[in-house]
Amino acid sequence: MSNKDSFNQHNQNYVLDDAFQKERKAHEDHNSNNFEFLYKSDIPHGDALDEHKLTVGVDIGSGTGWFANYLVEQRSYKKVYAIEPSEAAIEIAKKIYPDNKKVKYINGFAEEQISKLKLTKPTFFSTMCVLAHLEDEDVINILSAINKVAPEGSMLACSEPWGRFYHRQCWNIRPPEWWVENLVNWEYEFYNDYVLTDPPGRSKGFIAIKL
Fold it and tell me: Pick from 93, 28, 48: which is nearest to 208 by CA?
């Protein structure tokens, strides 16, 4: 689906009357059991954060800010840029985390906003099933922007599906070769623990480090 269509579908979640209550409950669930959410087999973020001690983050498609604020509150990040196209989602984030000045919310599309960042230290870039909802052109533009601003040693952690070319509902599945070709000079590790079986030949989760 196009960037605009994806945004319209995404934004609907944050303009409902009970959106604030639902999002706050989701954040509480993510915080439970010592943040086990980040260690699910399709989410590489927890292990990646344990292994790579960075202090600057860029949360792409940050929603209502759970992961961005987690980086500051639990991982002692000094600055996190939370990029989110839904203004309604950002307003909810600010209500849930009213005092966190180390998170900078940026309202806009990632491919436009990432290229404006001035990063001088290795940075942790995160997506959680965001890119799977976008068409190739939009994802390529996002990856190009990341490559442009990311200092050497930066990491990209993606809870995104990968495998042979499939399209299932709103998910775009891209093979490892596609990612390598469109984000060059990064070293990849594709996770095989989480296997999608409908249809077969797909997994979810990978990381990449800028060389």
Answer: 48
